[in-house]
Amino acid sequence: MNAKTLLRDGLDKYVFLYSDCIPVEGYAASAIYDLTRRLISTFPSAYYPFFELFRARRLREILGELAPEEGDDFVEFLDFLLEHEYVAVVDDPASFPAISGSWDAPCTIHNAIIDVRSQHHDYRKIVEGLDALGCQHLQVRAYSKLFGLTELAELARLCRSSSIQTLEVILPHDPSLGDADYVAVVGAHRIITSLVVHSADAERTIAVEYGARGSTAKLLATEIQLTVKPLESHLDCGHLAKRQLLPPSTPSFNELHQFNGCLNRKLAIDEGGQVRNCPAMRGSFGDHRTVALTDVVSREDFRRVWRAKNDEIQGCRDCPYRYACTGCRALLADPEAEDSKPLKCGYDPYTDSWTDWRARPGATATMARYQARLHLPIVRS
Ligand code: SF4
């Protein structure tokens, strides 16, 4: 069906936006989040008020209220909605309840990061602490060869009988190791769902087939990624480009209405062993060897940043992608303003354009300030 047919045959019906297709108003562009197909489409915000009309009026009434110059826009927008299968025509939209906006997770901590550079941590104590909090996903970022395949295999063994379901690891390339060494460790520990080897000599992948053959191998296989890009510090994190937006789903959409997409239910151990919300955030909650992670997580000042949702952040509150964006509260465009937009975001909601964040006036100078702070002898606060 197209708009022309609809306006001929369905004038006494309502245009109903499917319950899993949610409109989000932005400044220049607005969006529809298709929570089942996990897609986002954008359109000029000038069309957004039509959604109010759809909810309250039959098509005949809407047409009667439109100014003459709005008619073509309305037909064009209706065609857009029909082509994407976002709408149906119905007799009574009240028969279709909205999806619940509530969100929760069966764990106190959902994911954790461990950074390693020049000292090892008490991995056993960390895993036990995370297990007590129900943590499901763990990421290790190694900036030096101190944490290599031997340590990874040992950590994978520690995680095996814990709540942790996935282990993602970023390691520096070690030229003394061959592909078979990497495959042997990943292949022996299914909990390792991702291994990225940074500072490698070429961009390539290594297949891990877990001993399977033929069509089964395709289903089971994973890839180890090698990249020439170095990972130098936690300051390399926090990029927000279009490809980094989360494919929306009902749980993530609901979560981002209430919480920060990066920090909610996250815990981090920085390279110095300090417990933080994120390795790049300033506030420390003590050395992981001397504090209990369960005590840290019960503190209100630890949980406060979980609620730093995009609706309350400058610029982000006008962004159509705000419920698909994990944001960043560690590296801010204005480090003095708690509600500043993330430094490394390349989207301008007021012009609906994506650019390299470094092109924004003052952005590289702000980054230099963060880098200078990293090299201060005392980073605990
Ligand atoms: S950081 Fe803010 S402005 Fe940038 S994409 Fe995310 S929500 Fe939008």
Please sum up the structure shown.
This protein is 27% helix and 18% strand.
Describe this structure in words.
It is a single chain. This protein is an alpha/beta fold and 381 residues long. The chain has a domain at 3-95: Outer Surface Protein A, domain 3 (Alpha-Beta Complex), CATH 3.90.930. Helices cover 27% and strands 18% of the residues. The chain is built from twelve helices and 15 strands. The chain has helices at residues 3-9, 49-56, 59-65, 71-83, 123-132, 149-160, 179-188, 214-220, 250-258, 293-297, 300-303, 363-374; strands at residues 14-17, 21-24, 29-34, 39-44, 87-90, 111-116, 137-142, 166-172, 192-198, 204-208, 222-226, 266-269, 275-276, 347-348, 353-354. The strands form four sheets. Strands 10-11-9-8-7-6-12-13 form an eight-stranded mixed β-sheet. Strands 2-3-4 form a three-stranded antiparallel β-sheet, with no helix packed on it. Strands 1-5 form a two-stranded antiparallel ribbon. It starts with a helix and ends in a 7-residue tail after the last helix. Iron/sulfur cluster is lined by residues 240, 310, 315-316, 319, 321-322, 325, 327, 341-342, 345, 347, 349.
